[in-house]
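Homework-ish question, so no full write-ups if that breaks the rules, but can someone show me the predicted structure for this set?
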Amino acid sequence: MVEKKEAAFNIFKHNLVPKYTKLKPEELNGLFQQYNISPKQLPKLCMKDPVAKELELQPGDVVKIISKSQTVKERVFYRVVISG
Amino acid sequence: MIDEYINRGVPEPLVRGLVKEAEDVKLTKAEIKKALDRLENEYKDAYISPGEAIGVITAESFGEPGTQMTLNTFHFAGVAELNVTLGLPRLIELFDARSNVSTPAMEIYLDKAYTKENKDVKKVASLIKETKFREVASEFVINVLKLQVEVTLNKKNMADLHITEAKILEALQSGLKGVVVKQSKDGIIVLKPSSVEEDLKEVYKLREKAKECFIKGVKKISYVIPIKIGNEFVILASGSNLAGVLSLKEVDATRTITNNIHETAEVLGIDAAREAIIYEAEKVIKNQGLDIDVRHIMFIADLMTNTGKVKGITRSGITGEKESVLARASFETPIKHIINAALVGEIDPLDSVIENVIVNQPIPLGTGLPSLVAKMKNARI
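A: Not a homework solution, just the prediction itself:
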């Protein structure tokens, strides 16, 4: 019932919502090496987040986010999915 | 040639802007390349160096204009009768990420088919506005003998709001639990508690409940005004219900926004909330005639949404999540923090600014930072 209600509009079409792509497992190591970080240091995305629900993400997944920005045309950053 | 510079990290708008200007004044290719090289150098020179205290710069950038804002605090402005909190109170509310916005409001854009004619816009506006039972009723009478509430309907208001009697009956039936709803022959709606132990008090309670019963519209939207921006109609609403409004097919679900950050995060996700924070903060600052670089606002918005949830800059938000005990204690309620830390035996690694100021050590910022990187084992001083 609740899910049906949410499907009344597509959140990814909203201007405020950036473009999300889930990274493949083989892409992860490259990303961590490029910035010399561990997944813990990335910004987080909660499982409860509507975006995570919509894309059916699991904890540990990393998403690449491309959002429009006033200063640089496209701002690329990453979030790691956490439970909670 | 352009892509080459973009790939090396120079922002696209800069490169394209320069090339466009250069072509306008008819520079040769070699000259453009020279200019682009210069641009790249200038851009890389402008990088923030490691150890720069950007948080302090942001705080100062907000602090100075903020002092000017305080003078015109608590002013209300807006279109027609719609009040919106602006100025410093709004900014504080925004950065504290309060869940109760003092004046919730929405900007509702309409689907293309409904923006042309005034009549259509009004119809959509009445569809969005929450209508309660008392708005379509002219009289609530308590019948003491029969222990029931008798309601006379206001036909004129019903016509204005495009509501039929059948719809009202249906809404009452689902809105009031444990109540028998009937319509008598002369059009009066009769409400009677269905519980066995009827007493007058119950009937009084029922009358008050019935007045607030939801009939139609989107819940929580208490007031709407259509206004014209450019050449299209936009509905400004006081009260906020993003999910409810976006579900309507008459509404443009790509542009409609609310000023409640938490609601945005709940409905559209954390990154939408980040954008909303930037948008709202910019709106306040521009409205006051001030100019703060958007990068500072972005930085705060990033900080507030970093953990995946919207966190305000308060002791329960990001300040309360600082690693160091001393840093937390120096912000608000110091004794509570220190006692709790002592109880669990917390260790303070002293690797940030404020705790090092407290214990009188060099702070790891600017020239104080490199000691973290350089190994001083065999160095002679």
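Now go work out the reasoning yourself. Hint: Chain A touches chain B through 30 residues (CB under 8 Å).
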